[in-house]
Write a structure and sequence with these properties.
The protein has eleven helices and 14 strands. Helix 2 (51-62) runs parallel beside helix 10, helix 5 (166-176) packs across helix 11 and helix 9 (225-238) packs across helix 11. It has two domains: 7-153, no CATH class; 191-287, Glutaredoxin (3-Layer(aba) Sandwich). It is α/β, with parallel strands linked by helices. The mean pLDDT is 90. The protein is globular, with a radius of gyration of 23 Å. The strands form two sheets. Strands 1, 2, 3, 4, 5, 6, 7 and 8 form an eight-stranded mixed sheet that branches. The chain has a six-stranded mixed sheet with strand order 10-9-11-12-13-14, covered by helices on one side.
Length: 323
């Protein structure tokens, strides 16, 4: 590793890569390659992560959200050091002979070199296209170097779920949301829950009773405090007459969400790979597998502007007292 990186040199390597790929494809099929890009995707990950799994996730995303991807692998403590390599991710649509390719840059950086990353990454972002930062390293969130990297992006996506102090993490995100367009995968995991509750109130008789709902309780097991806070905040924002209570419950392995009112009781409960909805003792269930990174990021990358529902829920969740 060296102590510095030249963005100009990286861009020259990318240009040489495309020339080489075009020549090779032309000589084999005569159709060349199609260069696809709709954004710059910056991914911050720990070097200890499974690199192959992350590469598979990024490759799967490219067909719907083609991007110049800059993967920054954090090597942790050590001497100030940076290194890079460039390559391409290609696929051939069914029934076609021409490959579609997206360019990828991999940078390895020590913690001491974090402050150098903005000056390296900014010239590599594709002009006039969105810049999405996906941070997979929770420890970076409170670091000043992370703020400088996030300032490059038009949207920042994090995952507050694994963070050890949910309230502190949500407060930090709520503060950042005033100056940054944010996404949180802990919120994205609740999409199916919110959809299921919305479907319940498509029944006109139940919808007519919605104003009578006065109580909401969210119980959570170990590791589920952040989504519990989000659910409680969301329902309180949707139903101003309700102040949702959040409580840890060792008997609840994951999440359970209850709404109560005059002649109405609704419960949502995750059981293994199912979401069970009970309305006045009548239950139905739907498949609810734990979503992987591809599913979550596919949903998040489709959001192109601020999400006011999420932002209200984030601010409300950050104010919920510790259960």
């Amino acid at each position: 590793m060296s102590a510095t990186l030249s963005p100009e040199q990286i861009l020259r390597e990318l240009a040489d890569l495309w020339i080489s790929m075009a020549k090779d494809a032309t000589s084999k099929t005569g159709d060349g390659v199609l260069r696809a890009c709709s954004m710059t995707l910056i991914v911050l990950s720990e070097a200890s992560e499974d690199a192959a799994a992350l590469d598979e996730t990024i490759a799967a995303l490219m067909s719907e959200h083609p991007a110049r991807t800059i993967v920054i692998r954090l090597s942790g403590a050590g001497e100030r050091a940076l290194s890079e390599r460039v390559y391409a991710e290609c696929w051939m649509p069914f029934g076609q002979r021409r490959q579609i390719c997206c360019e990828q840059i991999e940078i390895t950086a020590s913690d001491r070199a974090l402050a150098d990353l903005p000056s390296v990454v900014l010239p590599l972002a594709v002009a006039d296209l969105p810049v999405i930062l996906w941070s997979r390293a929770p420890r970076l969130l409170g670091m000043p170097e992370f703020g400088a990297i996030a300032a490059i992006a038009t949207r920042v996506i994090v995952d507050s779920g694994p963070m050890p102090d949910p309230q502190a993490a949500l407060r930090l995100l709520a503060s950042a949301a005033d100056r940054t367009v944010l996404g949180d995968l802990a919120w994205t995991r609740l999409t199916r829950w919110r959809e299921m509750l919305s479907q319940v109130f498509q029944n006109r008789k139940l919808l007519a009773r919605i104003a009578s709902i006065t109580q909401a309780h969210v119980r959570f097991g170990p590791g589920y405090e952040t989504p519990a806070r989000y659910l409680a905040a969301w329902i309180s924002d949707c139903l101003p007459q309700v102040k949702a209570a959040v409580a840890a419950d060792s008997a609840t392995p994951t999440l359970q969400f209850d709404l109560s009112g005059d002649a109405i009781h609704i419960s949502l409960l995750r059981q293994d790979q199912r979401l069970v909805a009970t309305v006045n003792e009548i239950s139905q269930c739907t498949n609810l597998p734990q979503p992987g990174d591809y599913t979550l990021m596919r949903e998040e990358l489709a959001i192109t502007s601020r999400d006011p529902v999420f932002e209200r829920a984030l601010k409300s969740a950050s104010r919920i007292p510790n259960p």
